[in-house]
Design brief:
The protein is mainly alpha-helical and 241 residues long. It is 63% helix and 0% strand. The protein has a domain of 140 residues: Tetracycline Repressor, domain 2 (Orthogonal Bundle), CATH 1.10.357. This is TetR/AcrR family transcriptional regulator.
């Protein structure tokens, strides 16, 4: 089971902190497997071997527990992406590194990031708003990278970012291990998005010719043959005679 990164709020003794960390990890696994709505406090308590009432000594509520786990997962993902892009300065290189890291996170069998993000839909409205706020904060990483890209004016950067993240975040829906590695798939996705952007940029900068084209007026009739228009006129004259 993947440990959640970050420190719990407030100071706790070593034993209490370890117990709370265990609760967070077990709850994260249950939330990722069953979703927010189908996971109960009693199930979490049973999984860690304690009474449901005793669980509230370590947490405030199911809602606050889920928000904390979700936020920690995104913080851990953000930390990995920041580390991946740190060695790069060129915008395109930074984007490729970010894509590769996020895809690896989403396709990892031990990752809880994607299941938790998908549980946003089933969460209560107040919880959902907190989760969306954190997700938007996480996506700022990609927003800042994409803002530095040399994209043509015809490409909306917000739409570009939304489409790219949608492809990366839903890769687990179609991914099957074996044919390509995570890095190879990420490179394919990145290459497609870069190629489209550069193709659009080339189209914008391509010179446009104002010289009118000389369109052919028709084929020159072979010797001994009358033009089609004249032949049609002769036929019409004969039919009216």
């Amino acid at each position: 089971m993947r440990a959640l990164q970050g420190s719990p709020n407030g100071e706790e003794s070593g034993t209490q902190a370890e117990r709370r960390q265990e609760i967070l990890e077990v709850a994260a696994q249950l939330f990722s497997e069953r979703g927010y709505k189908a996971t109960s406090i009693r199930q979490i308590a049973d999984a860690v071997g304690m009474m449901a009432g005793s669980l509230y000594y370590h947490i405030q509520s199911k809602e606050s527990l889920f928000v904390e786990i979700h936020n920690r997962a995104l913080d851990a993902a953000a930390s990995r992406i920041f580390s991946a892009i740190a060695p790069h300065t060129a915008p395109w290189a930074r984007l490729e590194a970010a894509c590769a890291e996020l895809l690896d996170i989403q396709l990892s069998l031990t990752s809880i990031t994607l299941p938790l993000m998908n549980s946003i839909i089933s969460a209560p409205p107040d919880v959902r708003s907190a989760l969306i706020k954190k997700r938007d904060e996480f996506e700022t990483i990609f927003r800042n990278i994409i803002d530095d890209l040399p994209l043509p004016a015809t490409i909306d950067r917000d739409i570009y970012r939304i489409l790219l993240l949608r492809v990366l975040n839903t890769a687990s829906d179609w991914y099957r291990s074996g044919r390509m590695s995570h890095d190879q798939i990420a490179h394919q996705i990145f290459t497609i998005f870069r190629h489209q952007a550069e193709t659009e940029a080339d189209r914008e900068t391509a010179p446009t010719s104002t010289k009118p084209r000389n369109r052919p007026t028709g084929r020159t009739p072979k010797p001994g043959r009358r033009p089609a228009a004249q032949a049609s006129s002769d036929i019409l004259d004969k039919s009216m005679a």
